[in-house]
Amino acid sequence: MYLVSSAILLQNGLEDTKLSPHIQVVMKGNINQYKIDTYSKWKVDAVQEKIGCCGGYGDIDYRSIHIEIPDTCRDPVTGNQYKHDCGEVLSWYMQTKTGWMCGIALGICFFQVKMHFLFIINNIDINKNHAFKHTIYIFEVVITIMAFKHITKLKRQI
Q1: N or C: which end of the chain has fewer CB within 10 A?
Q2: Domain boundaries, the chain
Q3: Tens-of-pLDDT digits for all 158 residues of the chain?
Q4: Could you give the CA distance from residue 8 to residue 6 in angstroms, rounded to a whole number?
Q5: Phi and psi of 79, rounded to 5°?
């Protein structure tokens, strides 16, 4: 499961996922509760301030419910309002982090495959099945080489 999902994520990135629309919907829902619920206000303000964005779909989220656009939608240095919505900016932020997370997941998968092969080899009577041991070792080397070639190909595409 990790192998397939990591390969797909490395191949396509977050652009083809539904992450950005989901973030927009969640942010819009929290903005609708902005004046009522202090926890929703805290979440929205924290996201906007930390990553530099404004609203789920932009400042229209605030204008549509007749709320003044908060200062967390503005750059603290220049005072200019952020142009991008939080769905886009948070997706861009996550895009940079998913590459190394997928690399770790792929590394764990290949380590598990290697451990399975070692377990099989250790449980076989080496004296009786010497040829089988060499076949497994060759197969393991070929799989490892193919995996690293595929990973480097995927990294170049990102």
Answers
A1: N
A2: 15-88
A3: 566 666 666 666 666 677 778 888 999 999 999 999 999 999 999 999 998 999 999 999 999 999 999 999 999 999 999 999 988 888 888 877 777 777 777 788 888 888 877 777 666 655 555 555 566 667 777 777 777 676 666 656 55
A4: 5
A5: 85, 0
C-alpha distances in angstroms, 123 versus 96, 131, 134? 42, 15, 14
Q: How far apart are CA 47 and CA 73, in angstroms?
A: 10
CATH code of domain 15-88:
1.10.1450.10
AA letter at 114: K
3-state secondary structure of 158: coil
Which two three-digit tokens encode residue 98? 């998913």
Looking up tokens 């932009």, which residue turns up?
58
Print burial letters for 81-91: b (CB count within 10 Å at least 16), e (below 16).
ebeebbbbbbb
Q: Which residues are bridge partners to 74 per DSSP?
A: 81
- 70: which 2 tokens? 């908060």
Q: Any bridge partners for residue 81, and if so which?
A: 74
3 state DSSP class of 74: strand
